[in-house]
Amino acid sequence: MPYITYTDEHLEYWGNVYLREKLKQYGIVFEMFLRMPQQILDSIKKHQFKPLLSAQRVVAAQIRHEDAMRELQKREEKRLDGENKGRRNGAPFESLHHHRYAHKKPKYTRAAVESS
């Protein structure tokens, strides 16, 4: 997911709106609210949504926690994959794409020596 940068004024304004309207009670995460704040506010007012019940809030928190853990696991797997690229059986190695000494072709081949 790409990171979005907001100005301080934008964060301050919509943060105050988020707190004033108590949108957390509706199960709306602040990061999600920032992506389309006006549409969320209009939707809540238009459909007259009610805040989540306590059991619903618990389930929403569990879902957010599971999502966060899944994201952390993906990042850890990606980090480990990057670290293990230069390893064989756990031991670090450097693949060499050159030879220390240039290979010289012999001036004379056995067939050329025998024929003379």
Explain what this protein looks like in three dimensions.
The structure is a single chain. 57% of the residues lie in helices and 3% in strands. With 116 residues, it is mainly α. It has 2 domains: 1-51, no CATH class; 53-85. Strands 1-2 form a two-stranded antiparallel ribbon. β1 and β2 form a beta hairpin. The protein is elongated, with a radius of gyration of 31 Å. The model has no long low-confidence stretch (mean pLDDT 79).
H-E string: HHHHEEH
In percent terms, what proportion of residues is strand? under 5%
Low-confidence stretches: none
SS field, number of helical segments: 5
Number of domains: 2
Shape: elongated
Provide the residue-averaged pLDDT. Answer: 79
Helix/strand structural class: mainly alpha
- Round the Cα radius of gyration to an integer and report it: 31 Å
- Main beta-sheet annotation: 2 strands, antiparallel
What fraction, in percent, of the residue positions are helical?
55-70%
Summarize the structure.
The chain is mostly helical. It is 57% helix and 3% strand.
What's the structural blueprint in terms of helices and strands?
Elements lengths: L7 H13 L9 H6 L1 H11 L6 H30 L3 E2 L2 E2 L17 H6 L1
Antiparallel strand pairs: 1-2
Keywords summarizing the entry:
mainly alpha, elongated, 2 domains, 116 residues, 5 helices
